[in-house]
Amino acid sequence: MKLKIRALLASALLGLFASSPMLAQAEPARQFVLGNGMKVIVKEDRRAPTAVQMVWYKVGGIDEVNGLTGVSHALEHMMFKGTRNHKVGEFSRLVAELGGQENAFTANDFTAYFQQIEKSHLEKVMALEADRMANLQFDAAEFAKEIRVIMEERRWRTDDQPMGLLNEALNAAAWTAHPYHHPVVGWMDDLQHMSVQDIAAWYRQWYAPNNATLVVAGDVDAQRVLALARKYFGKIPARRLPAGKPQNEPQQLGMRRVTVKAPAENPYVVMAWKTPALRQVEQDQDVYALDVLSAVLDGYDNARLSASLVRTGGKATAVGASYSGVARGPVLFTLEGSPAEGVTTAQLEGLLRGEVERIAREGVSEQELQRVKTQLIASQVYKRDSVFGQAMEIGMMETAGLGQQNIDRIIERLKSVTAAQVQAVAQQYFQDDTLTVATLVPLPLAGKKPAPPPAGLLH
């Protein structure tokens, strides 16, 4: 689950739309650090009597090693299996009785847990979340049941889905040394050999207050939230965290190709180039230009890829461009699509690359650049209305090491991107030596339809 930089626009609309009464009421987030090292960030938004609590742990697929892939996701599942104070399933039952919603998600860079509740119930869910940070229990029988659920989840989301298989193969080919090589859900063989002891050890290694960020957004008072955080999380002792190693990806020395044959209706191709990630908000200008380039290609309904290859040219039935600079590890810029009848994936590759090459040769006009920037902002207006969305932005920025206080500054940097900078990154980063191509070759479906998700795949 990586975040495009332009998704952060939701948090900067105050500066861009100051005339809006709704946005003019926005206040900056308040940030604190507890004595045990846990970061607490509070975003007050009093438009509705609700609150969102999120706890973000800085651990995910990027921290895993061979033989233990998928352990972060498996631990996420076990976090709902009881503590010394609450029985299996009681966490979800109690949140539901409060009229709230809760869930969790694991990605390459983090694992996060959330509850959406009426504001008066914040203290109750904070107590529940702190309890499982400190007191999780690991029952072998519960693990045996849950690991079967996780393996079925892998089958449903990846093994039985041609696009899931294609994306997994793309990442495995693009990254040879970096942990992004591995799927977040884990390789099936690792899941089959995972033990409850592996999960317990991972919990003890990483689930510490000094490796977590508490984000609370909604109709709350920052000082009250801080007092509650001290009461429930502040008494949990800090732990010594594992010393991480960079696991830098070696230089790619030529184009890589991978083919996936799977039952599917249509062929598909994804091209992925290694590009810079955002590390220094003030210095990394190419990151912002790449994000604008992605928007020029695929940032609105009539963007270049769709207009040229689907609507006018009829060469593809679906196209897309994607770039995310916000990540703990390295990142890719992707072009992808499904060819129309009579067009091969090889031909579509050339057509997709041709759109970038056209920008490299001719650039973009000031009019198009301004239209794209307007679209980037307008597409995020309603996200500003979501308390959950604000909490997500804060958590992702903090986990990526960029700091939530830089959200507004990133918007300013995006606004400053010039047409010349967009043309320059189109010229610089789309070479064969940094390219990985994944192609889906469809096999007959044999009358099969995708199965519905199995019962129990809540998380």
Write the layout of secondary structure elements.
Blueprint: H1 13-16, H2 21-24, E1 30-33, E2 39-44, E3 50-57, H3 71-78, H4 90-97, E4 101-106, E5 111-118, H5 122-134, H6 140-159, H7 162-174, H8 188-192, H9 196-206, E6 212-218, H10 222-232, E7 256-263, E8 268-275, H11 285-298, H12 304-312, E9 316-323, E10 331-339, H13 345-362, H14 366-378, H15 387-399, H16 407-415, H17 419-428, E11 435-443
Parallel strand pairs: 2-6, 7-11
Antiparallel strand pairs: 1-2, 3-5, 3-6, 4-5, 8-10, 8-11, 9-10
Helix pairs in contact: 3-9, 5-10, 11-17, 13-17
Tags for this entry?
459 residues, alpha+beta, Cytochrome Bc1 Complex, Chain A, domain 1, five-stranded mixed beta sheet, 11 strands, globular, Pept_M16_N
Can you describe what's shown?
A 6-stranded mixed β-sheet has the order 1-2-6-3-5-4, with helices on both faces. Helix 5 packs parallel to helix 10. The two termini are 14 Å apart. The protein has helices at residues 13-16, 21-24, 71-78, 90-97, 122-134, 140-159, 162-174, 188-192, 196-206, 222-232, 285-298, 304-312, 345-362, 366-378, 387-399, 407-415, 419-428, and strands at residues 30-33, 39-44, 50-57, 101-106, 111-118, 212-218, 256-263, 268-275, 316-323, 331-339, 435-443. It is globular. 40% of the residues lie in helices and 18% in strands. It is an alpha+beta fold. The chain has 2 domains: 5-232, 2-Layer Sandwich (Cytochrome Bc1 Complex, Chain A, domain 1); 256-443, 2-Layer Sandwich (Cytochrome Bc1 Complex, Chain A, domain 1), CATH 3.30.830. The model is unreliable at 5-25 (pLDDT under 50).
